[in-house]
Amino acid sequence: MDESLRYEKFDGGVAVVTNTDAPLNRMSLAYVERLSAVIDDIAADDQVRAFVITADGLDNFSVGMNLKELPKGIQAAGSIDAFFDRRLDLIARIETMGKPSVATLFGNCLGAGLELPLGCTFRLAAADGASIGLPEMHLGATPAWGGSARLSKTIGRQHALDMILRAKTLSGPEAHAIGLVDEVWPLNELKDRATQLALELARQPALAVRAMLEALYDCERRTLQDLLAAERRAIHATMGSDDAREGLMAFLEKRPPVFNRQTGNP
User: GO molecular function of the protein, one example (predicted)?
Assistant: First the structure.
């Protein structure tokens, strides 16, 4: 039985994916392999409309990749490029599946322990005790799971260089101040808040959520005209849908809308 990861589905269209290697919660080979399969399951399951990526305990979200497994992983993949390409593909699938994801950052969130959350839609951090960064410079190396690319897109070139070149770690409030995380919560409330946010997102019209995630993907590099064209595609994709009709009727009837009835929203 694979004990590297726990995958749970809950009422309301939410799933929770938990690294079970507490207290370090390393990104082991087994964890990455299992996470890849779980992400495929989430992408294909219409009953899951939002998900949380978290870890057991309250010590660390993840200290990063288990470096002792690196030679074994490269040998199994066939090359160093193939090894890291699989991890880039995993994060890209999280980023582009059309379903929102929420990551919880607490304790050490280092290396891959930050690079995985950078592929998520929302990042929530603990108010105290979080240490968030890409410390590869201290190992004479560089980020390898897309960290430099996504970090610079998220917080800008100068903040990214400051963190990477100095192997600098940030607290939750410091990360929030530069836009690296979206919300900061007391540690004992963090996981509950992540689930609440996922439930809120799951109640939104899934077709419209997917359309917006696709329309705004990689928006930093795209022209205004391209983004306007993507918005127009989103309009065509959602106009006349069951959820669009429900939204209009709810507005006219002065009541809260109930979306996603076709996928079993209570």
Answer: catalytic activity
